[in-house]
């Protein structure tokens, strides 16, 4: 089984931006009946993906991701996904032994910037950059699937 283990943090300064180059992500969620599980459609550049995630158990959760044709991804985003879509620019920055992913949200989630780091295990230690603020791992309101229903601009 594919498993994702990650920690999420709020970003509190722009000092990470110096050499950062990001990619635009557009993603949506197909409604599911079980809390904590999600089916996501994503477009990154000219690539489409379908991702299925299970409920979180600590910092980990099952994750299965598959490339799909771009035309299929566009149609799913337009016709099957809860609106509005999540729009964000993702930056990947190495720091210490890890690569951090910083998501700068757009649209109804403008003003929210979250950094995450993927780990090999929940007990793995990680060096925390100075631009990192409070940890929000496990706080479901910061999950992208939650931001579709309850955008940051409405908090």
Summarize this entry quickly.
The protein has 155 residues and is mainly beta. The chain contains two helices and nine strands, in the order βββββαββββα.
Provide a descriptive summary of the structure in words.
- With 155 residues, the chain is mainly β.
- Helix content is 10%, strand content 45%.
- β2 and β3 form a beta hairpin.
- The longest helix has 10 residues.
- The model has no long low-confidence stretch (mean pLDDT 93).
What global shape is seen?
globular
Major β-sheet annotation? 8 strands, antiparallel, barrel
Spatial strand sequence of the major β-sheet: 1-5-4-3-2-6-7-8
Beta-strand proportion: 35-45%
Radius of gyration: 15 Å
Low-confidence stretches: none
Helix proportion? 10-25%
User: How many E strands?
Assistant: 9
Mean pLDDT: 93
Structural class of the secondary elements? mainly beta
Please describe the structure with a list of short key phrases separated by commas or semicolons.
mainly beta, 2 helices, single chain, eight-stranded antiparallel β-barrel, 155 residues, 10% helix
Helix-strand layout with pairing:
Blueprint: E1 3-11, E2 22-30, E3 38-44, E4 47-53, E5 60-68, H1 70-79, E6 86-95, E7 98-105, E8 113-118, E9 132-135, H2 144-149
Antiparallel strand pairs: 1-5, 1-8, 1-9, 2-3, 2-6, 3-4, 4-5, 6-7, 7-8
